[in-house]
Amino acid sequence: MLRSPLPGDPPPPPGLGLLITAPDAPATPDHGWWRDAVIYQVYVRSFQDSDGDGIGDLAGVRTRLPYLKRLGVDGVWLNPFYVSPQHDHGYDVADYCAVDPLYGTLDDFDDLVEDCRLLGLKLILDIVPNHCSSEHPWFRAALAGAPGSPERAPFHFADGRGEHGELPPNNWRAMFGGPAWSRVRESDGSWGQWYLHLFTPEQPDLNWRDPAVAAEFERVLRFWLDRGADGFRIDVAAGLYKHPELPDSPDPEADERTRDSVNPLAWNQPEVHDVWRHWRAICEEYTARDGRDRLLVGEASVPTPAEQAAYVRPDELHQAFFFHLLHAPWDAAHFHRVIDEAVQDIAATGSTVTWVLNNHDQVRTTTRFAAADELSGGVRARAAALLMLALPGAAYLYQGEELGLPEVDDLPDHLITDPIFQRTGSRVGIRDGCRIPLPWSGLESPFGFSPAGAKEPWLPQPAHFAAHTAERVLADTGSAWHLYRDALHLRRVLPQLGEGTLRWLDTPPGVLAFVRGEGLLCAVNFGDGPALAPVDGEPLLASGPCPPGILPAGTTAWWARDGRSF
Ligand code: GLC
User: Fold this and answer.
1) Alpha carbon of 502 to ligand 1 centroid (Å)
2) Which residues line ligand 1 (CB under 6 A)?
3) What is the mean pLDDT of each run of 10 residues along the chain (566 residues)?
């Protein structure tokens, strides 16, 4: 789909000539906008602190919207900002319809909606339906209620095994380490039943077989849609339903070991699809009123792209993150295979693939793709980004990737806040390193993240962030920021990009090349040495310097032709 240039868009790069065509008038004001949208993920806690407490907030996000507009994204996804004791930084929600005072107020949210509307940015919220906080009023009531009482129905309470119920009801393990069950004290002080939590004990799993749970989430969706949200990123979207008998798992360590959704009794139960059909119907109801598509994007971690496709059938979620690309090593054959699988399986549903390389749970690509040195990681991360932005479908960016930020992997143990560390005692998989507050300007911490005189940022920013401030990368036309901005601009004006077909070209091992809509060629050199460029002529855009006829190591380049096919 070709999007219209927006007011304030910079002029197209010179030399594009006939490649830029006039936009078609859409059938409804923005029907299907999400099919090839690029959404920027804001981890609110680490984006911009406006009140000086060292923690990012909604008013801070608002001040940076012009920056995001300038970058050229279509919208913003905000990580949870609801009332929460913050055991998992907001993924433990105690009140789904209120803003945590750490992050501001409902008025701040309303202001943000208004500014997003003015700037033409979509606003996507994060909804957490698999579990709530142990401080949610429902869970407090459940603890006060008796075994078998209606107060316990919204959760999974069960008697323990063993002579005195001293063993958990089954052998499931939690994603963040330890058993997936915790035992409660009943109101008389004696040890009692156990409750299920697939993450931390402070995140009790909700029981979606209780109709009150579905009704409550419908209320929550409508609350935020009525306030102007354009859609939701759905946390743990393959969760929600568990096997009704909660039997032992044949591979109890699976979830804990891989932190992926592989306990088939706890994840991906068929009933979950009915929830997404219902939520889609709610979104369609709002679209019918004003012609604006609402978006549901799921974090549906399921083993295969084919299983993932079930989540984006036409009456279910619009999008589901395609994590197989995010888990891919820097390897041409691997990238080729997962891209093919995604395009084929998801296209069969009529939806588009939703690509992602970074998010708040993963080691940043600059570090993930590093070979012997950080530098090659940065080079490859840029190449991977330019590859992703050439693929057919939608894409999500994570804050800071446009600044070329590396993972911070040397935080001292006592500063680590990730519950994974507390629960496992291991640094494997901890997520603080990709959540360090953003550097905006200046030469030392807080790098413009907080106002003058503020408390220290909630996680320390290393001195080397000085090389990655927004101020610095904006001033350097060879920076990652300008690459992202140029690529996003070209996606907006070139009909070959965004939704559409992909045709692979024959290439030597270690190089991938594909053609989009005939007029645009993207090639990537995954190797350690230079390769021959697949076409002559200067690239339209490249992730690094490209001498004539050469595609250097760790480089992606786009070439465009008007009217002629590659
Ligand atoms: C999702 C979130 C992650 C969170 C977990 C539990 O995987 O992305 O940050 O810890 O769900 O809600």
Assistant:
1) 32
2) 88, 91, 128, 199, 235-236, 299, 360-361
3) 40 39 48 96 98 98 98 98 98 98 98 98 98 98 97 98 97 94 95 97 98 98 98 97 95 70 86 98 97 96 91 97 95 97 92 97 96 85 98 98 97 96 92 98 98 97 98 98 98 95 96 94 97 95 96 97 78
What span, in angstroms and rounded, lies between the C-alpha atoms of 171 and 168?
A: 7
For residue 492, how far is the Cα from the chain centroid?
21
163 has catalytic annotation: no
The verdict on whether 95 is a catalytic residue reads no
| Kind and range of the H or E run holding 285 | helix 272-290
Q: How far apart are CA 505 and CA 522, in angstroms?
A: 10
* Residue for token pair 């005692």: 425
Longest Cα–Cα distance in the chain: 80
CB neighbours of 380 closer than 8 A, spacing ≥ 6? 330, 365, 369, 370, 554
Residue 167 DSSP label: B
Length of the chain: 566
What's the pTM value of the predicted model, to 2 decimals?
Answer: 0.94
Ligand 1 centroid–CA 316 distance in Å is: 21
